[in-house]
Amino acid sequence: MRAAVIDKPFSIELHEVRPPVIMSANEVKIQVNVTGICGSEIHAYHGTHPFRIPPVISGHELAGEVVEIGSEVKSVSVGERVTVEPHYGCKVCSACQTGNYNICHEKRVLGTQEWVGSFGEYIVVPEDTIVKLPDNVSFEQGALIEPLAVGVHAVRKSGVGKGDKVAILGAGPIGLGLLLAAQYAGADTIFITDALDYNLEIAKKLGVNSFINTTEEDAVCRILEETDGEGVDVVFIAVGIESVLNDSLKMVKRGGKVSEVALFERQPQIDISYIQNKEIQLIGSNMYVREDFEIAKEAIADNFFDTSLLISKVVPVEEVKKAIKIVDEKLENVIKILLKF
Ligand SMILES: [Zn+2]
Ligand SMILES: [Zn+2]
Does pTM top 0.85 for this prediction? Predict the structure, then answer.
């Protein structure tokens, strides 16, 4: 099969490799139709991702068709259009037992050395990770369920509700997903920041109230000004930059919440006294669980999550090298690039 392999840091090549095979009765083989390039793939490409370590066939945002099922698989059949929740837990630890398998310490994740990801044309996954696509959801939209579920999970964990004021720091794919999820949860006022006008334009089209280009304006000043000096109820960190993390502590209201969703390539230094002084709750958010996936899927099917603004390009997998470069070096204005097999 064709597979885009991150051979070593800063090298991704299309190779012909042996496809994965069904090894146990509960597994399902999927022919990948499209797969998204995620920020985590860029971290893997840099050789800085904690568990997507080269040489690796990365990829975990996908949609495709079931081509083979194990002998005990009952819930899905050959020919069905599906996506995959690309991780599963050990099922026995306390995190798994309480439904929080996303933080299982022995969690397996698609697109690692131990589990061939969707940058390969075929993947093999356990039956219970399969999520069927509704008829009115295209493969391209289906591949967006995963990145949007990240936002849904963070918003759910932070308890955003009707009338809340929210700031989202970073308007890339994760930030825009947080925006959609915060709107879905009923947030009233939403601020979003980014250094790129293009990303802010997309946020504007998605209906954000206030957007701030951080190269032109101080986000902390502006948000405090527009909230009568109080700050916002919840701040989401959607870009792994030290100064952004420190800004979040200044713009959150006293007793408010900061949700950390981003991956940091370097360890940030923060002024921790803000957390104590303002009684800030710092909440981590790691991927998602099934409920988040279902919410994202339904919101796409109901056209509440408009994915057309998020899918910037669909390119043949043969162009993976160029596509990774575009995302990594920001050579073009893109939110999400999908690779098509
Ligand atoms: Zn992703
Ligand atoms: Zn576990």
Answer: yes
CB 106 within 8 A of CB 117: no
The bound ligand whose nearest atom lies closest to the alpha carbon of 96 is 2
Question: From 3.40.50.720, 1.25.40.10, 1.20.120.340, 1.20.120.420, which CATH number describes the 150-284 domain?
Answer: 3.40.50.720
Closest ligand to Cα 36: 1
Q: How far is the CA of 117 from the centre of ligand 1 (A)?
A: 12
Q: Closest-lying ligand to the alpha carbon of 104? A: 2
User: What φ, ψ does residue 114 adopt, rounded to 5°?
Assistant: -85, -10
Q: Which residues contact 336 (CB under 8 A, 6 or more apart)?
A: 36, 37, 144, 147, 173, 310, 311, 312
Q: So what's the pLDDT on residue 219?
A: 98
Comparing CA positions, the residue from 31, 150, 151 lying closest to residue 82 is 31
The rounded Å distance from CA 76 to ligand 2 centre is 25
pLDDT in tens, 153-165: 999 999 999 999 9
Count of C-beta atoms within a 10 Å radius of residue 250: 16
Ligand nearest, relative to CA of residue 62: 1
Residue with the two structure tokens 């392999």: 5
Burial, 232: exposed, middle or buried (Cβ in 10 Å; 0-12, 13-18, 19+)? Answer: buried
Confidence of residue 265 (pLDDT cuts 50, 70, 90): confident
Options 3.90.1150.10, 1.10.10.10, 3.30.360.10, 3.90.180.10; CATH of 2-144+310-340? 3.90.180.10
3-state secondary structure of 6: strand
pLDDT over 90 at 106, yes or no: yes
Tokens representing 256 are: 């408010």
